[in-house]
Every structure is written in C-alpha cells, then in structure tokens.
C-alpha cells in the first residue's frame, strides 16, 4: 500500500491555527490534500493530527483521519520521522502493509500533483531510501555573511574574491514532500544523506510558511502564479 501522510499538529505558535487558516480561498491544508488526490499516487491520504478541528477540516477536504495523534508525538520537539513511523506502524498493525509513504506537509500550497508523481518515479527507479523536494539557493552560500554585535563578517572569507560563477551551486530542502520506502521510515534512517535523491523544483514555486511575513509573501506568489496560468 502507498500512503500520503500529512502531519498537521494543532499547536502552531508563530501563525496560530496555521494548518487550517484560510490561504487564497481555502484552508491551507486543502492545497496539499488536493495535490495528493490529483496525483493518483496514493491508496490512502491520511492526516496525522492531535486537533479535532483540523481533523474535521481534513475530512471535509477529502483526506481521512483514522486516529488522533498521541500526546507524546504532538509537542514542539517531535520530529517528522517519528510521526510518519507512527502512521505506518498503525496501518501495519491493522494488517494493511505499507510499502511506500510520502510525508506531505500541510503548509505546502505550491506542491503539485506532477511533482508528487515525479518523486514516486524517482523513488521507484533508483536504489534509494527517499526522494524529496529541493531547490537551489538564489545566492552563493559560500559568500554568506553573519552579523555579530552590529558588525559584518563572512562565513567563508577565503571566497571574498571568488567569482559567483566559480562557486559550487548549493541546494536546500524545499519543505514540500518526502517520498520514502516504509522500511526507511520505520528504521528512522536520515533523509539528508547520499541514500536520497532530489526532486528539483524551481525557486519560484518554493516558499516556507513559518512566519506572518512568509504567509504574506506566499499569498502574493501564489496569486501571481495563478494569474500567469490563466493568461
């Protein structure tokens, strides 16, 4: 069986009720659920939450919530892998064997059905544990600076005179989805290793939504992309 697992805890601090807050006309979580449904990749689309209101919204959007997430997996310090492992173990205990599972974040309105299908193809076509969304940094990380006591210093001062085109391109987690083999999730294998493959996304379709400023930027970008498709 192939699962989409959407973690959606109720205790968001910086943006209260973030997972179900209206985003461009729909609850934020609805965009992830719709992409999962449209992809045709999944036998079940499951939301893991500790919050009754989130559970109800998720069901209304087409996902299922077969259980409520236990308290010990619902605090600010619980990582993604234990949450995904818990869902897989629950289904396995029901006699419903899981082969692959995709962790799909509830706050990923830019995720597309096509990207989810590509991630599955990459996972199935390669000897790897995971395939997950990544994008490139817009600026060379080797020329990054820090600010200490109001003063500036480079992380890598040896690259002050290095031309940007001569520096190695760097990438980061796009924070949208993580396809994985069930055994990798169950064994708690790390995601950012050579046993993972990238699903490369363009930068204009990637935006973290962690702060109110992120939220505003994401809505602007989302509306611009929608308008571009309609033109």
Structure description:
This protein has a single domain (2-135, 172-230), classed as Alpha-Beta Complex (Spore Coat Polysaccharide Biosynthesis Protein SpsA, Chain A), CATH 3.90.550.10. The chain contains six helices and ten strands; from the N terminus they run βββαβααβαββββαβα. Strand 7 (145-148) and strand 8 (151-154) form a beta hairpin. Helices cover 31% and strands 22% of the residues. Strands 4-1-5-9-6-10 form a six-stranded mixed sheet, sandwiched between helices. It has a two-stranded antiparallel ribbon with strand order 2-3. A two-stranded antiparallel sheet has the order 7-8. The chain is of the alpha/beta class and 231 residues long. Helix 1 (28-39) packs across helix 4. The radius of gyration is 19 Å and the shape is globular. It has helices at 28-39, 52-60, 80-93, 113-125, 182-186, 212-230, and strands at 2-7, 22-23, 26-27, 44-48, 100-104, 130-136, 145-148, 151-154, 171-181, 196-200. The mean pLDDT is 96.
CA distance, first residue to last residue: 39 Å
Kindly provide the name of the CATH class: Alpha Beta
Beta-strand content bin: 15-25%
Q: Based on helices, strands and strand pairing, what is the structural class? A: alpha/beta
Number-wise, the strands total 10
Helical element count?
Answer: 6
Write the layout of secondary structure elements.
Elements: E1 2-7, E2 22-23, E3 26-27, H1 28-39, E4 44-48, H2 52-60, H3 80-93, E5 100-104, H4 113-125, E6 130-136, E7 145-148, E8 151-154, E9 171-181, H5 182-186, E10 196-200, H6 212-230
Parallel strand pairs: 1-4, 1-5, 6-10
Antiparallel strand pairs: 2-3, 5-9, 6-9, 7-8
Helix pairs in contact: 1-4
